[in-house]
Structures are given as C-alpha cells and as structure tokens.
Amino acid sequence: MSTPVSQQTIASTGPNAEQIDYWNGDAGGKWARNQDRLDAMLQPFSDAVLKLAAARPGERVLDIGCGCGATTFELAAQTGNALGVDISAPMIARARERAAAMKSAAGFMLADAATHAFEPGSFDLLASRFGIMFFADPVAAFAHLRKALAPGGRTAFVCWRPLKENPWFAVPLFAALAHVPAPEPAVPGAPGPFAFDDPDRFRRILTEAGYSSIGIEPHDALLSMGRDDDPVEAALRQSLEIGPLSRLMADLGDEHRARAADAVREALARHVKDGQVMLGGAVWLVTAQA
Ligand SMILES: C[S@@+](CC[C@H](N)C(=O)[O-])C[C@H]1O[C@@H](n2cnc3c(N)ncnc32)[C@H](O)[C@@H]1O
C-alpha cells in the first residue's frame, strides 16, 4: 500500500538541514493553511515571473521551492507538464491535493532542489516564485541546478528586494517594534527572504555557478493583504502568521502580543483602499542561461 501523501517526510540532513526543519515546522503548516490568501496576494508576482519565463508548449519545467504549487499549476497549463520540487512536506501535500482536485498535469516532488539527483539536461526552464533564497551554499546549489538544464536552457526567478523597499513586510514589522524583542542584526546574504536583495551579489553567485546572460531587473506591485469582510483584521492575521514579524512574535506573552497586534492593526488601517489593505512589494526579476 502506498504512503498517504500527508505522511511523507523528508530527512533533515545535508547542507540545508536547518531550512528543512524550518519549512517542515510551523512555517510550512502556516503557508499551507494560508495558501489561498497568499496566492491571491502574490498573484502580481506570479504574473510577472510567468511572463518572464514565457514557457512554450512541450517545454520541460522545474519549479524550485514550489510550495503549494501556484506557479507550477500555471506553468503546467502552459507547457502541458511541470514538476514542482520543495522541501516542505505540508506544502507538497497541499500542492498534491490541489493537483488532484484540479486534474492538473503538474507533478510534485518532496526533495532538496540543491542536492536532488536530477537527470542531467532534463529541463528547458528553471522557474521560481520566492523559492530560491534559502540555500546554505547558493553557488553550489545553482551550479547543481544548472546541470539539470538542457543546453540553451534558461531560468526565470522572482526574489525580494530589500526590506525597506517592501512596505508589505516593513509596515507591520516597524509598527510592532516597540513591543517585540529587537530582531537579530541581519547577516547580509544569509538564507532567508532577503538573501538576494543585493543584485550584484546575486549576479556574482550565478556567474560563479556557471550561468551567462544574467538579467536582474526591478519590478514593483501593489499587494492586496486583506480583502475579506474585515480587511484590516485579515491583513493583521496574515502579518502575525507569516514573515519576519511572526518570528519575533513567536515567544511573546499575551500582554505584549496584544499590544503589538494593536500597533500593527493601527498601521495597517492607514492603508485601506477600496475595501482592501494595499501595500507595495518590490522584487528582482532574474533571468539567466545555462
Ligand atoms: C517563501 S516560500 C515560496 C513558496 C512558493 N514558491 C510560493 O510562492 O507560494 C519558499 C519555499 O521554498 C522552499 N524551499 C526552501 N529551500 C528549499 C530547497 N533547498 N529545495 C526545495 N525547496 C526549498 C520552502 O519549503 C518554501 O516552500
């Protein structure tokens, strides 16, 4: 009898063991539970990366750090077939559940993209929406992934620009700072959402990993953080569950938690437009050739 997908697990070993733990703990569960809301919010960046990828029917596509599969489904609809790879068991389980419900041609694999033994030259396109910033050794990971590309193969990635250029991260975080423990000073380039916020560093990494014709272009979009009956409460719930603020809030007592939440609520309420909390997101759109 085959193992039910929800029980599939991945060993916390190899260079990315810390991230495997992280994305199989609370973080993965929260992303899987909030999948609808996050996909709706991040749709402008799906659109941007899909346009950049310009996938054609019949092309073989690998979606790196595919999470619950939003971009993999869209790529599979364009090409007839796409494979999503991710280290998070709860997110891959959610992606497979959705694939079955949608009868999508997308396939999903629970594995570390940085070390999995992909067949050499077996993809025409490596794509990713925010799934490539978590490698402990990014040069080794991107060099490994390049070998999975066929000659002439290409990449289309989207990753975050710096925190201060991303009000959807920064507004709730800064509003809460008086009530939460001070964040650890950021280590530039450490695995995490802002690992590639410096485009020169990312270009060096891709060059050292053997890629050519590297393009890194800025792109901005307004993101709808809450569009329920009560948009501010919806945006507040999301800010407290996902992203840098959720990590700082994790160990707070009830009183501090309530004060921080009040401060974030007040800040988010200033950004309601047409019944939605709208805040800006800023990314790099990254292309390269194998
Ligand atoms: C910010 S989430 C983005 C998920 C999805 N692409 C989306 O946009 O909804 C980052 C994803 O990268 C995955 N990830 C991190 N390191 C990975 C690795 N070494 N191999 C495969 N997936 C990885 C995480 O498990 C997580 O699902």
Number of helices: 11
What's the β-strand tally?
8
Report mean pLDDT, rounded to a whole number.
94
Largest sheet: 8 strands, mixed
What is the CATH superfamily of the domain at 15-163 and 188-222 and 281-289? Answer: Vaccinia Virus protein VP39
Strand content: 15-25%
Q: From the alpha-carbon coordinates, what is the Rg to the nearest angstrom?
A: 19 Å
Order of helices and strands: HHHEHEHEEHEHHEHHHEE
CATH architecture of the domain at 15-163 and 188-222 and 281-289: 3-Layer(aba) Sandwich
Q: Give the low-confidence spans.
A: none
Structural class: alpha/beta
Bound small molecules, by name, code or SMILES, are: S-adenosylmethionine
Structure notes:
With 290 residues, this protein is an alpha/beta fold. The chain has 11 helices and 8 strands. Strands 1, 2, 3, 4, 5, 6, 7 and 8 form an 8-stranded mixed sheet that branches. Helix 2 packs parallel to helix 5, helix 7 packs across helix 11 and helix 9 (231-241) crosses helix 11. The longest helix has 19 residues, at 35-53. S-adenosylmethionine binds next to helix 1, helix 3 and strand 2.
